[in-house]
Amino acid sequence: MSHAHTDQVQEDFDAVVVGAGFSGLYMLHRLRDTLGLSARVFEAGDDVGGTWYWNRYPGARCDSESYFYSFSDRLSEDLLEEWTWSERFAAQPEILRYLQHVADRYDLRKDIRFGTRVVGAEYDDATGRWTVRTDDGEQVTATFLITAVGCLSTTNLPDFPGRDSFRGEWYHTGAWPHEGVDFTGKRVAVIGTGATAVQAVPEIAQDAAHVYVLQRTANYDIAGGNRPMDAEDGRKIKAEYRDIWKATRETAFGFPYDVAPRTALSVSDEERQRIFHEAWERGGFRLGTTFNDLLLDEEANETAAEFLRARIRERVTDPEIAELLSPRDHPFFTKRPPLENGYYETFNRENVTLVNVRAAPIREITPTGVRTAEAEYEVDVIVYATGFDAMTGTLFKLGIRGREGLGLEERWADGPHTYLGLATHGFPNLFMITGPQSPSVLSNMPVSIEQHVDWITDCLRRLGEQGYDTIEALPEAEDDWVAHHDEVTATTLLPRANSWWVGANIPGKPRRLYPYAGGVGVYRLLCDEVAARDYDGFARGKSGAATNGRFSGVARARYRELAEEATAS
Ligand code: FAD
Ligand code: NAP
Questions:
Q1: Which of 22, 348, 384, 443 could pair with 172 as two cysteines, CB 3.0-4.6 Å apart?
Q2: CA 123 to CA 548: how far, in whole Å?
């Protein structure tokens, strides 16, 4: 492998990374500064940040507490010391500044091509190298292709009839104008009530003349409890950082607190209410970790669901609107619950109308507004808070072709097939950071991102030490992982909702649970076991010929052991 000389013109790299958000930045640092490899990052945006570069809508902020929605001590303890978050859940500009700071501190920008979209990546069987093509006509080659393209980076703009006829302004929240949008005195339609709309609507309602919130499915929104962080908060957190980060790596969702080891129906009604209330008061996702069967048992789940509906009834003055805002058609947490800061109270305002587009669907966008089966809403601005073609949407747009020219989209026509969510057979030397069938979006993502990047880094180091430069998932390992993924999924209530987690938001998308539901801590142990057993389930070799490999099913065997240990304790 060649060594990095990043200031000279170069077209052949050890690795090409696509994307410069959390994943791409950390991957570049590891490739270049830890492994001494040459690397090029391509980023479609004009700066680093990924999600936090694109999603600039009013109210955008993280739902993981800032102090653990960041890089851990794996990157650097100094960085943890020098950065202090100003709010419990930082707003988009602060998170973007943080990622810009990381890029500058580690001198990452010099190896990133901004404003450049990867449009093709073809594997050459003869040379064992990837050729990566960009929208500005550049072409480079690399031994390794690493996708850091994000799970939520391809916007979903529903194909409403007449969409382009609208004469007012329209925006998708995931591609928000940098100069912002002035809603003052305007009539606005917001389509969607997911995590994005729940953040944006209260902000827009403060300025707009009127806001129509077009809701198809009500969500279980949890109290966020955002607040400023003072110097004392900062000191306390910094003093505990090592324990905090250790915990995030071991828990189910990558948070520093784990799911309580008790079932919802094992306690009295009063005790359950007390536990829910305490979690509610603390804010954030804690409510989802109060009992260990909320995602497994319908009756248990209903206790949390009803607790949340009662909170809506308390806060929304019109009982009919409160009922409309109360989910009845899916269990709690089978769609990603948004965190809210004043969302429900927004519906007590005179200038906000909740429109039920489940009962009367959107028929078309007209030149002057939105027409549903029942009425026409004349507006000046339409905000599409309609989400993303998650997990696979962006991967497919890369135009990835593996051995014998097989397209990734073709290979995954009936849903993703991966080994550990990191690699896929027929695509040697392709690694996917937070790929489908890894915990990814079912976790506090920086923790999952770091785990993948560190695993890939160790894997590349070992390959080099062993004199290999080619690695490929074995088909039997992949089949085994997909079967395991499906088995774990089937034990949960997650398939029960029409969520983007199962691809239900995109017409024609295979209905599968896309993230892995086995938990962050457990998944890490499985990946470590695979590595410790000399990359069990991967074939390795030289110059494209990956022949040296075996599969003995260590990931699943380890999962069974862990499950037995958990049952015994
Ligand atoms: P991204 O940040 O999505 O970056 C991927 C980058 O790849 C993008 O910049 C994109 O332009 C680039 N790219 C894609 N395709 C190409 C191409 N073909 N060529 C070149 N470049 C390309 N997660 C949490 O855990 N907690 C939170 O609180 C949280 N809040 C969120 C809030 C919002 C509004 C959204 C949308 C997501 C949130 N997430 C949250 C998920 C979030 O996406 C991840 O936490 C994290 O930012 C992902 O980082 P990433 O680097 O993997 O991907
Ligand atoms: P989303 O959860 O997919 O929500 C999209 C909304 O648009 C849903 O209410 C959906 O209704 C509606 N919609 C889509 N197509 C529609 C149509 N044709 N007609 C009517 N309504 C339609 O998208 P999102 O809110 O952007 O959030 C996506 C994910 O990004 C989140 O789940 C979360 O992981 C992440 N995110 C995180 C944060 C944070 O952590 N702070 C903030 C924002 C986003 P249905 O429910 O009926 O499909």
A1: 384
A2: 20
Task: Read off the pLDDT of each residue in 217-230 and give the average, rounded to a whole number.
Answer: 96
CB 408 within 8 A of CB 424: yes
Which amino acid does the sequence have at 515?
P
Residue in 427, 367, 34, 357 with CA at minimum distance from that of residue 192: 357
pLDDT tens-digit readout, 245-283: 999 999 999 999 989 999 999 999 999 999 999 999 999
Helix ranges, 39-192 (H):
51-54, 77-82, 92-105
| Number of the ligand 2 atom closest to the C-alpha atom of 198 | 25
The pLDDT confidence band at residue 2, using thresholds 50, 70 and 90, is very low
Whether residue 186 is contained in a domain is answered as yes
Cβ-based burial of 399 (10 A; exposed 0-12, middle 13-18, buried ≥19): middle
Sheet with 210-215: list strands edge to edge: 169-172, 381-384, 187-191, 210-215, 352-356
Q: Tell me, in angstroms, the distance from the centre of ligand 1 to residue 149's CA.
A: 7
315 alpha-carbon distance from chain centroid: 30
**Residue 34 Cα to ligand 1 middle (Å):** 24
Ligand with smallest separation from the Cα of 22? 1
398 and 377 co-located in one domain:
no
Which of 505, 506, 509, 514 to mutate for ligand 2's pocket (most ligand atoms within 8 Å of CB)? 505
Q: Are residues 227 and 252 in the same domain?
A: yes
Count of structural domains, the chain:
2
Supply 43's token pair. Answer: 């980023």
Residues 224 and 354 both lie in one domain? yes
Render pLDDT for 281-291 as a digit per residue (tens, 0 to 9).
999 999 999 99
Which of 42, 51, 57, 61 should be mutated for ligand 1, with most atoms under 8 A from CB? 51
Token duo for residue 331: 């269990």
Q: List the domain range (segments joined by +) for residue 549.
A: 11-48+108-154+390-568
Instruction: Note the pLDDT tens digit of each residue in 352-366.
Output: 999 999 999 999 999
| Ligand 2 close to Cβ of residue 153 (< 6 A) | no
User: What is the identity of the amino acid at 481?
Assistant: W
CB 187 within 8 A of CB 380: yes
Nearest residue (by CA) to ligand 2, atom 12, is: 192
Reported as a pLDDT band with limits 50, 70 and 90, residue 10 is low
**Residue carrying structure tokens 């003349």:** 209
pLDDT average, residue stretch 466-475: 97
Q: Tell me if 498 is assigned to some domain.
A: yes
DSSP string, 476-502: HHHHHHHHHHHHHHHTSSGGGS--GGG
Residue 441 near ligand 2, beta carbon < 6 Å: yes
Tokens 């770091």 belong to 450
414 and 356 in one domain?
no
Domain closes at, from 384, 412, 431: 384
Listed residues 384, 408, 423: the one ending a domain: 384
CB 349, CB 210: distance < 8 Å: no
Task: Write out the two tokens for 374.
Answer: 């029942």
Distances (CA, A) of 71 to 28, 67, 79, 347: 14, 9, 8, 37
Same domain, 192 and 137: no
CA–CA gap between residue 259 and residue 69 (Å, rounded): 19
Contact, 130 vs 17, CB < 8 A?
no
